[in-house]
Design a protein that fits this description.
The protein is of the alpha/beta class. The protein folds into two domains: about 150 residues, D-Maltodextrin-Binding Protein, domain 2, CATH 3.40.190.10; about 100 residues, Periplasmic binding protein-like II (D-Maltodextrin-Binding Protein, domain 2, 3-Layer(aba) Sandwich), CATH 3.40.190.10. Helix content is about 30%, strand content about 20%. The strands form four sheets. It has a five-stranded mixed β-sheet. A hairpin with a 2-residue loop joins strand 2 and strand 3. The longest helix has 15 residues. Keywords: Signal. Pfam families: SBP_bac_3. One of its GO terms (molecular function) is ectoine binding. One of its GO terms (biological process) is ectoine transmembrane transport.
Amino acid sequence: MADFPHLSRRGFLNRSAAVGGLLVVPGLLTACSKTDAGAATGAGALDKLREQGFVRVAYANEAPYGYMEGKELKGEAPTLHREIFKALGVDELKPTLSEWDGLIPGLQAGKYDVVSAGMAITPERCGNAIFSEPEFISPTALMVRKGNPKNITDLASAKEAGITVGVMSGAVEGSYAKGAGIPEGKIKTLQKPQDGADAVKGGRVDAFLLTGISLRWLAKTNPDTEVTEPFVPQLDGKAQFSPGGAVFRKGNEDLRDSFNRELKKIVSDSSRYVQLLEPYGFGKSEIPPEDLKTADLCKG
């Protein structure tokens, strides 16, 4: 099997940057270990969800992964999860908003049944919850000015052209740029995605490096830019796929397994996958490789 490191940009950013990682606080997790009496748990969890007609899902209000627009829950994860649970006989998603670092503790406490937030699969998180197989990977891309005047396609071409590349503060893309041999003097740190788009439009950087998912979403409101075809960066010789998935409470392996069976049908059908998730910036390049497995990602 290929070597699939678990590192994810979404595991490196804090919430002020709109995407982030879970800081595992043992005391907090212990305090939340008592499960709500109404939670669907154990071998009969799916039967209970079918009987009640809904599944409680948590989201972090982070576009394009899971967010509320008016009274409708939208995004990659809710769209995919709604399709899967309908196939399992559960017709409705009941959403609960959570701060990012409260998602897994709230799951453990039985406040909801599934985290629908596009959460990155990491060994640390696998210690506190169980993940579905990957729903998506997050290849990297570059936002450039309309017309791509420097003809940049990836980090190798960026290095060769000697351009200035923007990255977000605290994000793993900075290490990707350095690993590709781009000099530190040619790497400009920015605080949030819109800062990156503004820097590209204003000529302060020639390209802004982020996941293709986030950049395609950002480009919707920045028409003077375009996004290159996504590519999988290398770091220390290892491909950086940055996969994410649905999260379940420990003890709900049967529910997770049922979910996985329906998920496999979707990720194995590229046209169906794209039809469902293209409105949120996900395309064929985000479909997980068949041999990318959560069990391996959880080992690190």
